[in-house]
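Late entry, evening session. Most of the bench is empty. Finally got around to the prediction I had been postponing all week. Sequence below, unchanged from the version circulated by S.P.
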Amino acid sequence: MHSRPDILLSDEELVSRAGRGCAESFDELMRRFQVPVLHFLRHRASPSDAEDLLQDTFVRVYENLHRYSPRWKFATWLFTIARRVSMNGRRKPRLQATADYGDAPANARSPLENLMEKDDRRYLWEVARRVLSEPEQTALWLHYVEEMPLADIAIVLGRSSAAVKTAMFRARKRLLPHLQVLGPTDAAVRGSDARVEDANSWAAPLEARHA
């Protein structure tokens, strides 16, 4: 009935089959994850470099399928590799980038996601790159965009859950003054409905999402 039975399998089942040599299963994993991983990488490098980093990430995944353990979620393992590739394999910026893959998927419906609409979204992550450390940027991205659980973010960053929670709280506090400048006037200029109240509510404790 289904021409592609792999689409019915979980990520972990697919990576297990791919590790045994099933090319179709690996193709399905790429189909599922290439867009979210590309969006993750585009906020860590130029759009054109992100394409190269994406290819490098999946090459690294393929070469290390034998190292994958079922005790990990595949997405957590994948983003761990993508982060390492982006940190260790950055290329020289190119003068012009023509690729456009649109906005990051809006899976989360937190006040932060309301702010991250159109230009405001780009503004927010540009500010994050300037004022936050790389681990803090990564933690916020995985939390709000990928909706990754705190325990999985800790695995990606190689830190304890408590350390990640503390880092995210401090990062949000540092970002808050920059978010507050997105008042009604600035939001109108950027063509968004963002409000200062959203920025204030975004500073609420993380326990609301990961009790």
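Two things to note before I forget:
Residues 2 and 164 are 42 Å apart (CA to CA).
Confidence is low (pLDDT under 50) at residues 91-119, 183-211.
Will write this up properly tomorrow.
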